[in-house]
Design brief:
mainly alpha, 6 strands, four-stranded mixed beta sheet, 416 residues
Length: 416
């Protein structure tokens, strides 16, 4: 009698465990939306995995989940898919609901296909540079040597996941991230307009684009999957196509300053401008609103901003804001093996090539560039009044981003 009860109890416990795993799996892949058709033709590193291939040795839980996901892939690959919807052009002009977009505007001039860049070779070179310096023990920077498991959960909040197409995008503010987020919303169908998913990226209002609840990011996995979260992250990192876009670090700083301190931004005025004006410009009794401050001619200077970045007290109070935080701290390029590295300097060509590789170029096109994007040629003018010692310190602060992503050292700014 006792044996029979133990047997029944064992069956019940096993059944409950399997139900929980099925729930985790179902919540992870959704209802028939697990499309992994994003393979790249680039040579794979030893141990790299393509959809349908055998998994390399993983811990027990990882292995079980990997097999579970792998079996789903095989079933989905044999299931006829509906024809993909053709590109929806949408409106001819974006809705300018944000001050920054209203001021800067879009470049709607026709861009012809530019084949001057050999995109495949370009990607091989960019990835080779990144991997070489990540492996180079003589080149060091903070957090370089830690493993993926060592990265705190809150530092994974820039990795946006699209389970429908098997894509992971690490967004870098001031590097076309608004429009790439719009593309991710369209692909993942994570936002509806009157019950229908958005089809044209520029139809998505900017305030929805930057709402954190709109996107599934790695830092949210813990709430969904608990102790399975890191295992699922690793599986997705192996199976999914991972990309990011970067920019000359100094030009990115100029762009961040222009958009957050030259335009009336209430939040950035209160959080950053007021402390900067007090610390570095000796102002007291500052207005509480940005409009009053601008009316009184009280604005943060670029010199104030650079002092703020170099001030050791800044990081002690809180980590850099994402708009000027280094890319290596946002996207962890030495812990995550990115499949595609785009650059703002070649945005049009890179974006078109990436959408082709993802096999979604018939679904949407990447939105047009801003008209007056901050240019690299402006660096000399912006840094002309910044003391040489500060420029040299600033380079050391952002050196890893320059080196990892192949940007030349700005010698003209670092010498007398």
């Amino acid at each position: 009698m006792t044996k029979a009860r133990l047997l029944r109890l064992s069956v019940v416990l096993v059944s409950i465990f399997m139900i929980l795993l099925i729930i985790v799996y179902w919540d992870n892949v959704g209802t028939a939306h697990f499309y992994l058709h994003t393979s790249f033709s680039r040579p794979r590193a030893p141990g790299a995995i393509a959809a349908g291939e055998d998994w390399e040795a993983l811990p027990d839980v990882d292995e079980f989940l990997a097999k579970l996901l792998g079996s789903s892939l095989k079933r989905n690959s044999s299931t006829p898919r509906k024809p993909e919807q053709l590109l929806v052009q949408g409106s001819n002009k974006p809705v300018l609901s944000n001050l920054e977009e209203n001021v800067r505007g879009y470049d709607w001039s026709t861009h012809k296909d530019r084949n001057s860049l050999d995109q495949e070779k370009l990607q091989v070179e960019r990835q080779r540079t990144l991997r070489e310096f990540c492996a180079n023990s003589s080149f060091t920077f903070p957090t370089k040597e830690r493993s993926f498991d060592d990265i705190p959960n809150y530092e994974l909040n820039h990795l946006i996941v699209d389970d429908r197409h098997g894509v992971i995008y690490c967004y870098v503010p001031k590097v076309a991230c608004t429009n790439w987020k719009r593309v991710m919303i369209v692909l993942s169908e994570s936002l509806l307009d009157q019950g229908v998913p958005y089809r044209n990226p520029l139809d998505i209002p900017r305030e929805h684009v930057h709402n954190t609840s709109t996107h599934l990011t790695f830092n949210k996995f813990w709430r969904r999957y608990g102790k399975f979260s890191r295992h699922l992250m690793k599986i997705k990192l192996k199976k999914y196509t991972k990309f990011l876009f970067v920019r000359d670090p100094f030009v990115r700083l100029i762009s961040a300053f222009r958009s957050k301190f030259e335009l009336e931004n209430e939040d950035f005025y209160r959080r950053f401008a007021i402390p900067m004006l007090k610390l570095y410009s000796n102002h007291t009794n500052l207005p509480t609103s940005v409009s009053e401050a601008f009316g009184a001619g009280l604005r943060v200077s670029f010199s104030d901003f650079i002092q703020y970045l170099l001030d050791p007290r800044t990081e002690k109070m809180a980590p850099f804001n994402e708009h000027w935080r280094q890319v290596y701290r946002l996207c962890h390029p030495c812990q995550i093996d990115y499949d595609f590295i785009g650059k703002l300097e070649t945005l049009d060509e890179d974006a078109a090539y990436l959408l082709q590789l993802l096999k979604v170029d018939r679904l949407l096109r990447f939105p047009p560039s801003y008209r007056n994007r901050t240019a690299s040629s402006w660096e000399d003018n912006w840094f002309a009044k910044i003391p040489l010692a500060w420029r040299q310190q600033l380079y050391k602060l952002y050196e890893a981003d320059f080196v990892l992503f192949g940007y030349p050292k700005p010698e003209n700014l670092l010498k007398d």
